[in-house]
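1st attempt posting a full record on here, be nice pls
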Amino acid sequence: MSSMDSFTDDSYKIDKDVEPDATLDCSALKNGDFYYAFPNPVTKENDTTFVTIKDKMYLERMNKGKTYSLLDIQWLDDCQFKLIFKDSNDPYKKKLSKEGEIYNYQVMSSTPNSFTIKFYMEDQAYKFELFKMK
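the predicted structure (as C-alpha coordinates):
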Protein backbone atom coordinates (compact mmCIF):
# COMPACT_ATOMS: atom_id res chain seq x y z
CA MET A 1 0.00 0.00 0.00
CA SER A 2 1.04 3.63 -0.16
CA SER A 3 3.16 5.23 2.55
CA MET A 4 1.98 7.53 5.31
CA ASP A 5 2.83 10.50 3.10
CA SER A 6 -0.10 9.62 0.85
CA PHE A 7 -2.52 9.99 3.73
CA THR A 8 -1.53 13.36 5.14
CA ASP A 9 -4.97 14.62 4.12
CA ASP A 10 -7.19 13.91 7.14
CA SER A 11 -10.05 12.90 4.84
CA TYR A 12 -8.45 9.43 4.63
CA LYS A 13 -8.26 8.95 8.41
CA ILE A 14 -11.10 7.23 10.25
CA ASP A 15 -11.89 6.18 13.80
CA LYS A 16 -10.65 2.66 14.54
CA ASP A 17 -14.00 1.77 16.13
CA VAL A 18 -16.10 2.52 13.04
CA GLU A 19 -18.20 -0.56 12.30
CA PRO A 20 -19.01 -1.82 8.79
CA ASP A 21 -22.51 -1.77 7.34
CA ALA A 22 -24.43 -4.75 8.72
CA THR A 23 -25.86 -5.86 5.36
CA LEU A 24 -22.68 -5.85 3.26
CA ASP A 25 -22.32 -8.16 0.28
CA CYS A 26 -18.65 -8.31 -0.73
CA SER A 27 -18.93 -11.14 -3.25
CA ALA A 28 -18.29 -8.80 -6.21
CA LEU A 29 -14.90 -7.92 -4.71
CA LYS A 30 -13.56 -11.48 -4.74
CA ASN A 31 -12.75 -11.60 -8.48
CA GLY A 32 -12.58 -8.61 -10.79
CA ASP A 33 -10.87 -5.45 -11.97
CA PHE A 34 -10.86 -2.29 -9.89
CA TYR A 35 -8.98 0.99 -9.39
CA TYR A 36 -8.21 3.52 -6.68
CA ALA A 37 -6.48 6.91 -6.62
CA PHE A 38 -4.30 8.56 -3.98
CA PRO A 39 -2.32 11.79 -4.00
CA ASN A 40 1.29 11.19 -4.93
CA PRO A 41 3.45 12.66 -2.12
CA VAL A 42 6.00 13.89 -4.66
CA THR A 43 3.83 15.32 -7.47
CA LYS A 44 0.75 16.09 -5.27
CA GLU A 45 -1.39 14.79 -8.14
CA ASN A 46 -3.68 11.77 -7.92
CA ASP A 47 -2.07 8.52 -9.05
CA THR A 48 -4.45 5.83 -10.26
CA THR A 49 -3.64 2.24 -9.37
CA PHE A 50 -5.40 -0.55 -11.25
CA VAL A 51 -6.14 -3.71 -9.28
CA THR A 52 -6.96 -7.23 -10.43
CA ILE A 53 -8.23 -9.71 -7.85
CA LYS A 54 -8.38 -13.30 -9.04
CA ASP A 55 -8.56 -16.31 -6.74
CA LYS A 56 -5.65 -15.73 -4.29
CA MET A 57 -3.85 -13.08 -6.38
CA TYR A 58 -3.98 -9.31 -5.84
CA LEU A 59 -2.13 -7.45 -8.60
CA GLU A 60 -1.63 -3.67 -8.66
CA ARG A 61 -0.50 -1.84 -11.81
CA MET A 62 0.83 1.70 -11.51
CA ASN A 63 2.45 4.31 -13.78
CA LYS A 64 0.21 3.49 -16.76
CA GLY A 65 1.05 -0.21 -16.44
CA LYS A 66 4.82 0.26 -16.35
CA THR A 67 5.17 -0.93 -12.72
CA TYR A 68 3.37 -3.50 -10.59
CA SER A 69 3.02 -4.93 -7.09
CA LEU A 70 2.01 -8.55 -6.57
CA LEU A 71 0.40 -9.68 -3.33
CA ASP A 72 -1.45 -12.77 -2.13
CA ILE A 73 -4.99 -12.18 -0.87
CA GLN A 74 -6.44 -14.28 1.94
CA TRP A 75 -10.11 -13.83 2.79
CA LEU A 76 -10.74 -13.96 6.54
CA ASP A 77 -14.53 -13.80 6.08
CA ASP A 78 -16.92 -12.37 3.48
CA CYS A 79 -15.71 -8.78 3.90
CA GLN A 80 -12.30 -8.96 5.63
CA PHE A 81 -9.04 -9.92 4.00
CA LYS A 82 -5.31 -9.63 4.36
CA LEU A 83 -2.74 -8.93 1.69
CA ILE A 84 0.71 -10.53 1.83
CA PHE A 85 3.36 -8.65 -0.13
CA LYS A 86 5.28 -10.78 -2.63
CA ASP A 87 7.06 -8.58 -5.17
CA SER A 88 7.11 -5.20 -6.91
CA ASN A 89 9.14 -3.47 -9.59
CA ASP A 90 7.79 -0.09 -8.46
CA PRO A 91 10.60 1.75 -6.58
CA TYR A 92 8.18 3.49 -4.19
CA LYS A 93 6.23 0.35 -3.24
CA LYS A 94 9.34 -1.84 -3.15
CA LYS A 95 10.89 0.52 -0.61
CA LEU A 96 7.68 0.61 1.42
CA SER A 97 7.05 -3.16 1.66
CA LYS A 98 9.17 -6.22 2.22
CA GLU A 99 8.35 -9.74 1.06
CA GLY A 100 5.98 -11.43 3.52
CA GLU A 101 4.62 -8.21 5.08
CA ILE A 102 0.92 -8.49 5.90
CA TYR A 103 -1.70 -5.74 5.59
CA ASN A 104 -5.23 -6.09 7.04
CA TYR A 105 -8.34 -4.73 5.32
CA GLN A 106 -12.05 -4.60 6.07
CA VAL A 107 -14.83 -3.53 3.72
CA MET A 108 -16.90 -0.89 5.48
CA SER A 109 -19.58 -0.08 2.92
CA SER A 110 -20.41 -0.50 -0.73
CA THR A 111 -22.33 1.04 -3.59
CA PRO A 112 -23.17 -0.64 -6.91
CA ASN A 113 -19.85 0.73 -8.27
CA SER A 114 -17.42 0.79 -5.34
CA PHE A 115 -16.27 -0.48 -1.96
CA THR A 116 -15.06 1.68 0.94
CA ILE A 117 -12.24 -0.19 2.65
CA LYS A 118 -10.57 0.37 6.03
CA PHE A 119 -6.95 -0.55 6.70
CA TYR A 120 -4.34 0.16 9.33
CA MET A 121 -0.93 1.74 9.02
CA GLU A 122 1.20 2.55 12.07
CA ASP A 123 -1.80 2.09 14.42
CA GLN A 124 -3.95 4.62 12.53
CA ALA A 125 -7.07 3.53 10.64
CA TYR A 126 -7.50 4.85 7.09
CA LYS A 127 -10.06 4.40 4.35
CA PHE A 128 -10.00 4.41 0.59
CA GLU A 129 -12.51 3.72 -2.14
CA LEU A 130 -11.97 0.86 -4.57
CA PHE A 131 -14.01 1.39 -7.76
CA LYS A 132 -15.23 -1.37 -10.06
CA MET A 133 -14.00 -1.18 -13.64
CA LYS A 134 -16.80 -0.93 -16.19
